[in-house]
């Protein structure tokens, strides 16, 4: 009943990735949490709270109570909440409860009746580096600071 052999068999079949993490479970930002800063994941992120920053991931789900202010780069985006910013994703789904303010660049787009969309939609085959999830988003402040230092040194 509680033998070690059966425990090994039960846990041996779980999908593992680098560092022993199980990627079938999403990283969750719960409804009572606000994150200020950039998020990056090679797996799935589910947002039920608020994120103020850029997001880069393989799959992003924004729940009904979730909101994002910033740029999103993902393979798949499923939106039930709100986004204010630019979206670059291969597959985008806006549910009837979604509120999107900004432009969407996509390969595939589905919008349910009732969804709010203010911005431009552009169908474009996205190059792999646009939605790549292995590198964290670059910080715009660092780019501006570096540009200012380079021009001041000249």
Automatic annotation (TrEMBL):
Annotated stretches, region: Disordered: 1-23
Compositionally biased residues, Polar residues: 1-10
InterPro entries hit by this protein: BacA/B (IPR007607)
UniProt-listed PANTHER family: HYPOTHETICAL CYTOSOLIC PROTEIN, POLYMER-FORMING CYTOSKELETAL PROTEIN
Family note: Belongs to the bactofilin family.
Name of the protein: Cell shape determination protein CcmA
């Amino acid at each position: 009943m509680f033998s070690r052999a059966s425990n090994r068999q039960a846990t041996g079949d779980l999908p593992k990735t680098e560092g022993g993490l199980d990627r079938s479970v999403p990283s969750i930002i719960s409804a009572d949490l606000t994150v200020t800063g950039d998020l990056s994941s090679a797996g799935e992120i589910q947002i039920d709270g608020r994120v103020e920053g850029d997001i880069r991931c393989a799959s992003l789900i924004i729940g009904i109570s979730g909101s994002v202010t910033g740029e999103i780069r993902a393979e798949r985006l499923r939106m039930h909440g709100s986004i204010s910013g630019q979206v670059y994703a291969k597959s985008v789904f806006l549910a009837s409860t979604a509120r999107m303010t900004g432009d969407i660049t996509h390969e595939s787009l589905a919008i349910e009746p009732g969804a709010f969309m203010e911005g431009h939609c552009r169908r474009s085959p996205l190059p792999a580096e646009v939605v790549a999830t292995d590198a964290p988003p670059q910080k715009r402040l660092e780019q501006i600071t570096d540009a200012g230092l380079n021009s001041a040194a000249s």
